[in-house]
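Quick log. Single chain, no ligands specified.
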Amino acid sequence: MDSKAHPEKLPDTVAFQDKFTREFMVSPKEVKEGYYLFKSKTGGFTMLYPKNAKIDRMFYEKHGKYFEALHFGGGRGEENISNYIRMIYENRKITEDIDVNVSLLSDDVHYNGKYTKLELNDKTIYFGKNEQHISNNNNDIIYYFFSYVKSKHSHQAVQFIYAVTCKDANHKCSIDVQKEEERAKMLMKSIKFQY
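-> predicted structure:
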């Protein structure tokens, strides 16, 4: 997308009204209800992108065509739910060492459990989940769904962390953990590596 496009002619969504986020969107047409098509600046992958999420420019990092890190977040204010996604894309031989990469991911999310292996045609997803209690308040829990998404045809991989919590712990919010897990998996599965 042309980042100089006139915002008033674009969809009234965070993804298109935020100038930096808009640079990653392929088109203003939703490819699935509530989602646009995102394309990484390395050109390494595309994926579904929530229309109400904003990419944080401060945490964005890119090195050549082999490394890209980004955070994006949004939420559903009316439900008092906040979520963010952290991704690291790599296209290097090191991605072939699954144990090391999964271990790094586990350290990031304080996880010491097993991963479920999801085999797809073009990629393998090593999936895990956990929750972190920030305080004694029952609304103060962060649910994490995370994975290491590895291409079967190249040295490309994405470390993917999806976190969801109540936006304001002092107000009630009901997080449907099962639905959030489905949403996280849908986004992980939507990653398509470009060769």
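The longest helix spans residues 177-189.
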